[in-house]
Amino acid sequence: MGYLGRRIGLSQDNGDSNPGAAGGAVGGGLLDLFAHGYFERQGDIYNAPGIAPPSSLIATGGIISDYTTGPGDVYRAHIFTSSGELDVTELGTLGNTIEYLVVAGGGGGGSAQNSAHDAGTGGGGAGGLVTGNFTGAVNTYSITVGAGGIAGNAGQMQPGSNGGESFIGPPGSKVGPATGGGGGARSNAAPQPAAPGVTGGSGGGGATDGGNPTPGGSGTGGQGNTGGAGAAYGGGGGGGSGACSGAGSGGSGIVIIRYKFQN
Question: Of 219, 213, 211, 221, whose CA–CA distance to 238 is shortest?
């Protein structure tokens, strides 16, 4: 490498390293400071930037968690357990595909008049589950997470309410809408018949009164299943469980967004 103390002259590639060379053609000097100090070798840039490494889109919102898949790709997930916003501020070169998993709120369980008669109420149905993807853009996406359905009031023979819908985007342009779970069926005092489960993402469970079970509610195609038929002191369906005199409310939904973060 050349030094500042050496005069401007021929490069070390062409000059004579002997100070007594003819004509004083000593190599080095400022030419070499630039030719070899900033460059690894003449004509080749040291640490050449070349092609920039691939970058991911940049977004904020929700609970952020990075994880590695089997092939070694790193994904970033934004997890929403309550409603919020996904704010995409920059697009990347790794592709701008945004994948989503959307789960609606579960339905509430039904209730009975009391536990003195042979009756069982239906459990609330699980919230619908939807997966898919869309091409991201620099935008703020609203995220709606459905609440769980409310249980029927103890001792009042009430069905549970349906869970809330979960989706991405504004109400007028929903992406991945998942249907709330169906409410669980109420029982009834004999000889009045019990009610069936309510239709939902997964249907609410049926009920029974005096050994006469009712069917579960229908599920939404591609999102859930039909609720189970009633049985003495119980009923089918996920979410809030039914009971003779009281019932449980459904759980809230969840929305998970993910995209490739690193190769």
Answer: 219
